[in-house]
């Protein structure tokens, strides 16, 4: 494999040959097999949120934060779907993962897409709210979830056979390769991506959020991740849950995962000696948003002008050698700006 040649090829807008993509996917799977569910990563490192197939904006992200391998990255998921260049996004991330000299946490399974949309899919939102982020109180649905309880609402998360026709990645692979083989190679890799990353033992990066079945980080290490995301349970919750201005737990309007509050987050950080939980999964108009009085959780969003119509800025969050934080914001590229136009919103709940 000539990784540098392949990287240049993809950056120039070309696709790898089908056999090259297959070779790359098999190679990266062998790397991922050796990684932990909670992959340790050393600072300095830069944490990124959802990308959603916006390849040109991903290139701007690297221009903003620094190029690999000089800068190490953790991507917290939702690499594909919604955007027009999911194949290029996932291919370049695989290539950077394969090329040595980068932190092993560059691909956090806090994001494997197209299963019904990656592990942290967007929820049913309206035309102006594609990620289903709503303001307001939770109301009567708020409730205390017993520690270790198995209770879950029936999830509406789609499996690959249901979701492949809906959000774009499958059709894109068919269009660009003339068959579904590329889609199969990539979705096979999704099953090997790690569940989370931990920076210097003090910052946990996960796609969605917390789970009432997960009190300690060690419990994440025991989850069997070599499978599609289940409809319920701790694996599902880590990918689907969202923070909310409540104290404990509430039913999630997504139909999977939970809403979790300030007390839950503070206790989780205290028990695990964490300073911060980093997550993605929700559109943030301002690009980055801290939650709760102690700011023990932050949402990072890295897809500017999401779906080419939301008008949001994007961000990346960097940690230096001393774990001091620096946020960089960026807007969409001119290439993505030209993609604006009539676009049918795809509701999550069908």
Automatic annotation (TrEMBL):
One of its GO terms (molecular function) is protein serine/threonine phosphatase activity. One of its GO terms (cellular component) is cytoplasm. Keywords: Hydrolase, Manganese, Metal-binding. It is found in: Cytoplasm. SMART domains: PP2Ac. Residues 16-334 form the Serine/threonine specific protein phosphatases domain. Its EC number is 3.1.3.16. It holds the Pfam family Metallophos. Belongs to the PPP phosphatase family. PP-2A subfamily. This is protein-serine/threonine phosphatase.
């Amino acid at each position: 494999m000539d990784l540098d040649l392949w990287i240049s090829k993809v950056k120039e807008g070309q696709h790898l040959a089908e056999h090259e993509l297959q070779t790359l996917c098999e190679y990266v799977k062998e790397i991922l097999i050796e990684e932990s569910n909670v992959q340790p990563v050393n600072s300095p490192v830069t944490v990124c949120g959802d990308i959603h197939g916006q390849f040109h904006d991903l290139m701007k992200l690297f221009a903003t934060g620094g190029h690999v391998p000089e800068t190490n990255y953790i991507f917290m998921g939702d690499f594909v779907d919604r955007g027009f260049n999911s194949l290029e996004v996932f291919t370049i991330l695989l290539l950077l993962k394969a090329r040595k000299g980068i932190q092993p946490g560059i691909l956090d399974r806090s994001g494997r897409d197209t299963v019904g949309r990656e592990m942290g899919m967007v929820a049913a939102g309206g035309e102006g709210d594609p990620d289903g982020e709503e303001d307001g109180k939770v109301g009567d649905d708020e409730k205390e979830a017993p520690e270790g309880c198995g209770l879950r609402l029936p999830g509406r998360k789609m499996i690959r056979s249901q979701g492949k026709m809906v959000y774009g990645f499958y059709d894109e692979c068919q269009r660009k390769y003339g068959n579904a083989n590329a889609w199969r190679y990539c979705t096979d890799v999704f099953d090997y991506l790690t569940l989370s990353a931990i920076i210097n033992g003090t910052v946990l990066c996960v796609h969605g959020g917390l789970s009432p079945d997960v009190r300690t980080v060690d419990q994440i290490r025991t989850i069997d991740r070599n499978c599609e995301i289940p409809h319920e349970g701790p694996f599902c919750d880590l990918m689907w849950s969202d923070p909310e201005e409540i104290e404990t737990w509430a039913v999630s309007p997504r139909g999977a995962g939970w809403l979790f509050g300030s007390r839950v987050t503070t206790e989780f950080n205290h028990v695990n000696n964490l300073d911060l939980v980093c997550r993605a999964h929700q559109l943030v108009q301002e690009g980055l948003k801290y939650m709760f009085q102690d700011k023990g959780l932050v949402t990072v969003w890295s897809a500017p002008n999401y779906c080419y119509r939301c008008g949001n800025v994007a961000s990346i969050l960097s940690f230096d050698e001393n774990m001091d934080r620096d946020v960089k914001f960026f807007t969409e590229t001119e290439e993505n700006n030209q993609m604006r136009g009539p676009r049918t919103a795809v509701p999550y709940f069908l």
